[in-house]
Amino acid sequence: MADHTSPLESSQLLSPDIPMLTSPPPPPHPPNIVNGDGPQQVILVQVNPGESFTIQRDDGQFQCITGPAQVPMMSPNGSVPQIYVPPGYVQQIIEENGVRRVLVLPQTEFHPGGHSPLHHPPPPPPHAHLQAFIPHPHIMHPPPHLYSGMAGGTGDMNPQYISQYHPAHTTIYSEQDTHPPHGRAAFAHRDERASKTYERLQKKLKERQGTGGGGGGGMALSKDSPPPSPQKSRGTPPSGGDLQNGLGGKGAEEQAQPSTAVTALGKSPERGKETESGALQERLNSICKPVVTDIQARGVSLSWVAPSRTEGDDEPKEGEEDPAEPSFTYEVSVSYSGKDGKYKSAYSDVELSATLQDLRPATDYHVRVQAMCNCLQGIPSEPVSFTTLSCEPDKPSPPRKASGTKSSLVLQWKAPCDNGSKIQNYILQWDEGKGTDTFEQCYYGPQKQYRLTKLSTASRYSFRLAAKNDMGVSEFSEVVHIMTSCSVPAPPLSPELIQSGVTWLCVRWYRPAGSPKEDEISYVLEMEEEGSGYGFQASYDGDDLSHTVRNLHRSTTYRFRVVAYNAEGKSNPSGVSEFTTAPDRPGCPCRLAVKGKPHPTSFRLTWDPPKDNGGSDVTKYVAELSEGLSGCSWNQVYSGSAVECVCDGLSPGCSYQARVHCISAGGESPLTEPLQVQTPPVPPGPCQPPRVIGKPKAREVQLRWAPPLVDGGSAVSSYSVEMFAPQMDEGREVYQGSEVDCTVGSLLPGRTYGFRLRAANKAGYGPFSERSEVTTGPGAPEACRPPHVTCKSPTCAVISWETPSCNGAAVSEYRLEWGEAEGSMPMCYTGAALSHEMRGLLPDTNYFCRVQAVNVAGVGPFSDAVLCQTPCSVPAPVSNVHALRESEMRVEGCRTTERGVDEDDDEDEEDEQARPLLYSPSTCLGLRWEAPCDHGSEITSYLIDLGERQPILTGPVTKYIIQNLQPDTTYRIRIQALNILGAGPCSHTFKLKTKPLPPLPPRLECTASSHQTLRFKWGEGPAKAQPTDSLQYHLQMEDKSGRFISLYKGPCHTHKVQRLNESTSYVFRIQAFNEAGEGPFSTVYTFTTPRSPPAPLKAPRVERVDESCEVSWETLPPMKGDPVIYCLQSMQGNSEFKQIYKGSATSYQLPNLSSSTEYRFRVCAIRQCQDAPEIIGPYSSTVILLPPRVDSPGVSGTTGSKAAEAQKPKRSMTDEQFSFLIIALLAVTSILIAVAIQYFVIE
């Protein structure tokens, strides 16, 4: 199943035609029974070819399984699961040789004649409450033929195992399947063998119903259900060795027996989908093997042909629409372990070709292609084999040092992959010890090692390696640095202490003096603990010059020394150094408590020294205090050697936490547990001055205040507010209560009053706050004077105004409105300034503005509106630039080089095509743009910037053709408009490319000629045009008025000109063109038609006169001034024709005829040309003169008349009859040609 199961992708959308199964939780152990010997059973769900089976896993993901496949499902309990039977179908349980199978068959009524209607019901809607099966964990490969099977076992079918049914997933194929795998059509009637099979199955079914289902516990059919018939399998059932679910033997053979076929009255949508799916599957299976091209060492190119329609699918049936061509996806898989080896996917896309990269050189590969469409997957094609080419070897590994001395090195290396060609030599390069990136060759040969001598002591050398074969040299390996040996190092200096800890010491030492930098020296650090008696022990061995020794004892002395060594040996030990570890931190102080009674702002702490001082005396104690019970922020309040302290500067009525720790030479001790202390409360502190809420009215104000910042450690219970009237030193209480706001009334308008307040808690009243002044009755300001507008630039203006009368309240802000229409002016500024600058204005535009003042009392009226006009400016940037079409680059309306072209945009398309091109698209570029806004000053010209070329200045036009450009070149162009005020901004840069140069004209040759036709040939190529020809030709001929008319335009290389006059000279020229444009015309060619021969004459008339005869023929007029003569020939018996007359006469008398000889005559016309030889026309038909007969006197009259009648020549056809005959032949020929074109070309 692993080879046929694919995850549900986004393209495989769920549809009602695909059943969905909800998977229950997986069992604790995989089932190990197949024949029903345990509590779990395996049910095989057969998935037909070209169809899919969708299940829902326990993680909520959907999985789509495409056929052909066999899905193992598992029953959690020991019973046989019940298959869902939709309306119109019945289920039948058959047991054979201890194996039980369930058949889902269409509900048909058995008729002896073998004809029973069958309708495919639509699939029922999915049931959310139906439980499905989980996939079997073991991988099961599909059998070669699909069949229905179910593991044998006992038990009834439980409703909770009902699965949604659809014909696409039925475990037995019905006989109505329109696509059997071997292309055989379903039987329309039952044969004798099918009838016997049906009777045998019916008999077994009745026996089970009478005995309660035998020993299998199967479910009996209802009385209303018709007797089901066995279904025909899609092929021969698999052998017993291929069955994995216990089916085989006689039961499988009976399943494969053909049963009664029925004729469907109608084709349901599901039936049509199965037919279409089967046809598409056969089409996917018919893909041909790919074609290999362009084989390289590490790559190859492949191509293939899309699957073609099968026979019978070329044309849709009557009444059906032509189905759309499906979209195929192709997957290319590669194997290098043989044609039957494992294939790996290398390409998947919709293209019909692919290029495979990253192949191994000189390797045999096998490639096959597989077609897919939607959820269907075809059979892979036959594999095609190829071998990649050989190439240079792979990049070798760096050489390594095998051995060495102070003056020599022996290097070795391994052979890399030769890539199909044997490695002949190796190239070893080195830098000669100079330390540069310049390498020189030091060895070239087939060996895999090399010895270098006469080297410097303790020097570093760099090497790299390359391999060479017949195909070339490989890349060089990575550079490796190798040192030569040196002498034993000198004793290092005594080690030094960097830092010490409680259980560690960080020690460092120095490199021995005089040792070269290239010498690789290692060190051994030896340590001895004081009083241990073990002597020096090695604690470090390495290349570092420092080391931290850990796991030591606190306050303990240790002795250290260092030994240096290299490849030549060890040095003497250094001098001994003694270091002592630091002491440990002490324990926390004991019995933290408060001494005496806490005061509102202070209390006294006391504690005892720690029990463990960590090996050193305590130097000081630190006390910390935190306000509140959270313990988030701690502040140091004492640091000293005493064991008590006073914490002052506290807040009354607050909770505090206190803690203490001590410090010694070993560090800080842990903190004690926090001690909670509560200070008594005091009266609250002063409040903030009361503030006015809202706008003061004329006779009352509303005040509000906040609680005091310091409540004295107790909640505030009440407030007292006092008021001071104008010119009074004593205040009176106007409010007392617990609220934080009040309203004071009975005030005078326009007066200033003072207010103060105080708060009280359970400890008493606190001090008064500062006095706050409040003025009543302010008014809205007056209207401002009209503002003054000054234009700084075409896009910027400054508006200023004066301060109006404030009416007792200072103006807090001004509001400015600005707009192009007096009735619609949006607000553009709000603030306290007396001026505002407007930016981003349009040049040459009228604007209106007005202003109003605002204070705390309200908003004043607007000033009078002021009109201003911005000055003119440079034009706006050019936009909407387009390239001119070739049809617009015509003679009419064009101007000279580098001058603008202003044409009408609505010009007729046919007139544009009729005009010849004046400008070549290979050297010219036509531009069109829209005129930008002139900003009040008329645009005088445009400037076209071409980058490297000199800018082009044009007039006030919107079209221009740039000439004298390079063919097939891209130009970056931008356009700028100018007026009398200056140049506007440039347009966006856009790219245009000139076309390549058009082709040159070919040589024109006349290959055949007649008096009415001329056949021409030009260029090199086939006579007929190819579909891929991009080069075309245009042949023209000069008419009587001197103009050239078009004769042929197309890709062919030959053309025949007809309906010409004889002995006439004609002038021709030819032109070649392609997508680059039309090339120049060739020089004119003159060809002359020959003179036409005389027309054929009718058969001559012959009259016998005694011993002679007179031969006469028709007369031909002179041909364009050339006289016509005649030539008469005669033949006696079986001899040859001989000329007997030549002249201008139209009759001739032949004397001395023989009475026993038969004569034959024919005549032709000859045209006598003045400046050319004679032209002989075709001969006429032959007329026969028979010898006279000698008969008896009685019949002499009759015989004479018959002889005379026989001697008369046969009448020839008239001109009208001959013309009618030619027209009839032409009509018949035309009809035959039309029929042939209709049959062979169109259809």
TrEMBL record:
Residues of the Fibronectin type-III domain: 286-391, 395-487, 491-584, 588-682, 686-779, 783-873, 910-997, 998-1092, 1093-1190
UniProt biased composition (Acidic residues): 312-324
Domain of life: Eukaryota
Pfam families to which the protein is assigned, alphabetical: fn3
Feature: compositional bias, Gly residues: 210-219
Spans traversing the lipid bilayer: 1218-1242
Region (Disordered): 1-38, 173-192, 204-281, 305-328
Mode of membrane association: Single-pass membrane protein
InterPro entries: E3_ligase_FN3/SPRY, FN3_dom, FN3_sf, Ig-like_fold
Location relative to the cell: Golgi apparatus membrane
Composition-biased stretches (Pro residues): 22-31
A GO cellular-component term linked to this record: Golgi membrane
PROSITE patterns named in the record: FN3
Keywords: Golgi apparatus, Membrane, Repeat, Transmembrane, Transmembrane helix
Family that this chain belongs to: Belongs to the FNDC3 family.
PANTHER family to which the protein is assigned, alphabetical: E3 UBIQUITIN-PROTEIN LIGASE TRIM36-RELATED (PTHR24099), FIBRONECTIN TYPE III DOMAIN-CONTAINING 3BA-RELATED (PTHR24099:SF11)
Protein name listed in UniProt: Fibronectin type-III domain-containing protein 3A
